[in-house]
Design brief:
The chain is about 40% helix and about 15% strand. By secondary structure, the protein is of the alpha/beta class. The chain folds into two domains: about 130 residues, Aspartate Aminotransferase, domain 1 (Alpha-Beta Complex), CATH 3.90.1150; about 220 residues, Aspartate Aminotransferase, domain 2 (3-Layer(aba) Sandwich), CATH 3.40.640. The strands form three sheets. Strands 2-8-7-6-5-3-4 form a seven-stranded mixed sheet, with helices on both faces. Helix 4 runs parallel beside helix 5. It is globular, with a radius of gyration of 20 Å.
Length: about 375
């Protein structure tokens, strides 16, 4: 059997190691495992979501218009429901964007180290992937690459996963003013709820951006701050012509009935989201202090994770050492970095993680 040749150049996305696999491989009890590798909300989702789930609805397809969820998002962001497309996670909308613009010689541009699915989807459609020399978002380099290569799609991950850095809104506007309206600019705001809380200068207003720059699409997700990673619900916000094109490549019923119920209710409980984000940054301060106390370098983060990188720590060895003790974090060696990313957990989880890293340093 001969598969499409482009698959030869694609490395599968490396998801965080699941708890069940650690139970099987290391014989650790499930309740003793801490998973801080996939940037899930350690506080779960809003109690209102759990109360709203109607299991008897599982036999029915969802309302494929998703009107109630779209209306909620439209009110939340100050846009029209016609400006919204729903995806199975925001990464599905990344694929929609590339699919809708697919052509011979398609080019995409993104930061040196960023969300891996940009490149994976691009290669799947035979596109050329252009990366900036710097790992983080250096907009001067983006502009230089744009002028040289004339990419069809530019991805800005704001804040950036897996590094945690975040562009300011004004920086992005200055950049967009120099980009052709024929180039689609994808602003991936998967962690925007965290960035907005920490620094208003880094807050993205989708309504303003899509009105001022009609070639922009903003992506959001319910997988992070809203605690619905297992439900797989994302969304894109853009001008109607872009949304209309994306709907032509969107399969029917691309999220489930239960996912739809959950997302509708999660959006309504902003008080829960605010509480989770507040605790996230309170706990992140402990990781920052630990790093400073032990001369470990870290990237100041505007997300729900922190990335450690240091010549004192060989990331793969440290991650494996933690894994054998029931702590799952994300080794970034696959990105060519001697670094590892830790999702900010609960107070109890973080106490144990920091104690284990302390032990690793002392051995």
């Amino acid at each position: 059997m001969h598969f499409t040749r482009v698959l030869q150049h694609i490395t599968s996305y490396e998801a965080g190691k699941p708890i069940e696999l650690v139970v099987r491989e290391y014989g650790i009890k499930r309740e003793d495992i801490i998973k801080l590798a996939s940037n899930e909300n350690p506080y779960g989702t809003s109690p209102k979501v759990l109360q709203s789930i109607q299991l008897e609805a599982m036999s029915l397809y969802p309302d494929d218009s998703y009107y109630e969820l779209k209306d909620g998002l439209a009110a939340h962001y100050g846009v029209d429901s016609q400006n919204i497309v729903i995806g199975s996670g925001s990464d599905q909308i990344i694929e929609f964007c590339i699919h809708a613009l697919h052509k011979e010689g398609l080019k995409i541009l993104h930061a040196g180290v960023t969300f891996a699915m940009y490149g994976i989807y691009a290669k799947l459609y035979g596109a050329e992937v252009i990366k900036t020399p710097d790992n983080a978002h250096n907009l001067a380099q983006f502009l230089e690459s744009y002028q040289t290569h004339k990419p069809d799609i530019i991805f800005l991950c704001v804040p950036n996963n897996p590094l945690g850095e975040c562009l300011e809104s004004k920086q992005i506007e200055d950049f967009l003013a120099q980009i052709s309206p024929d180039t689609l600019v994808v602003i991936d705001g998967a962690y925007q709820e965290y960035a907005t809380y920490k620094d208003s200068a880094r807050s993205i207003n989708p309504s303003h951006f899509i009105t001022t720059y009609p070639n922009v699409i903003y992506l959001g997700t319910f997988s992070k701050a809203y605690g619905l990673g297992g439900m797989r619900v994302g969304y894109g916000i853009a001008q109607k012509d872009i949304i209309t094109a994306l709907h032509k490549v969107r399969p029917p019923f691309n999220i489930t009935t239960l996912s739809l119920q959950a997302a509708i209710q999660a959006l309504k409980d902003q008080e829960f989201i605010h509480s989770c984000i507040q605790k996230n940054f309170e706990e992140m301060a402990r990781y920052e202090k630990f790093a400073k106390d032990h001369a470990i370098e870290y990237i100041p983060s505007y997300t729900n994770f922190i990335t450690y990188h240091s010549d004192k720590i060989q990331s793969s060895k440290c991650c494996q050492w933690l894994l054998e003790r029931g702590i799952i974090v994300r080794d970034l060696a696959s990105y060519g970095l001697n670094a590892f990313r830790i999702t900010i957990g609960t107070k109890e989880q973080n106490t144990r993680v920091l104690a284990c890293i302390q032990q690793y340093l002392e051995q």
